[in-house]
Amino acid sequence: MVATTGPVPYLQALDLSELREFGAAADKLHRHGVGVSGEIIPHRDPRMKIRGGKESSEHEQGQRAGPEEARSPAGAREGQGPSSAGGSAAAQAVQRQLVVARGLEELLGYYPGWTWSSSPSGVGYLRLPVYPFCTLPYSGVLTLELPTQHPSWLTSPSTRQSDVRAAPHVRSWATWEYGIPITSHHEYPDRSMCTHMPGDWDLRTGQLLHLAAMAVLWIGKSLHNQLLGRWPGQQHYESAHVRLHRDAVDEYCGCGSDQPYGSCCRAVDLATRVYERLWWLCEAERRYLHEIQRRGWPRYLT
Known about the structure:
Layout lengths: L8 H4 L4 H11 L2 E5 L5 E8 L2 E2 L2 E2 L1 E3 L4 E2 L4 E2 L3 H4 L5 H12 L8 H7 L4 E4 L4 E8 L9 E8 L4 H4 L5 H4 L7 E5 L31 H21 L11 H7 L19 H6 L2 H22 L7
Parallel strand pairs: 1-5
Antiparallel strand pairs: 1-2, 3-4, 6-7, 8-9, 9-10, 10-11
């Protein structure tokens, strides 16, 4: 096989300006919105709120202001916006199997074409079609794993908070069209998406709409990393081993700070002994998989 150099041919035919705008806004720590069907709406102002090194976001209706003129939200692509009537009927069908359905009705109104399936393991899978960038031919499906029965692992008096925090309350996965997995270095051992830090979203009080928004932004950053070669905005993981192998020197440091990795934790990470780095990584993975087993969840997406 002959090695090739230079830009990838198919990227030359793509207009990546919208993706670059999204990445630049994330690097400036601006807050993002998410419109109908998961269209990402980068904000120029104000500075976004950061919690635990991951970013918060909200779904919003209306138009996205461009440099010269207003740009239509994703709903215009399919000729529809959030439908409270349709969302209500749809939510009732799913809620018969859900114990926790915070913000479910509103969520379904934002994602026309959703599908639902349940499994014998006490969880169901809500699949939401997403179109994160209106100028790019990348459409996908976001899958949220939701409980279909009372989550005793969350409310039992014997439950330790440290155990619950070892894994997210709701797991999520994403695929591009034709079932191609969307991957990133921000994911758990079972390849589910790491969209927020432990404790930043709670199944008892958090809105599913906000959880989906964080997942859509994760998809956008994964695409930015794939096509433009860097992860935009702040990021967070505690493992020195992960930071050394995955953080570029000009990316925000994986410790969650607003400093580049090259001038933040890199020197300390390099000075950490290799076995200590690996021990920390293996321990975090062990605790995660143990918690998944304790909850009775399937090891991988079913």
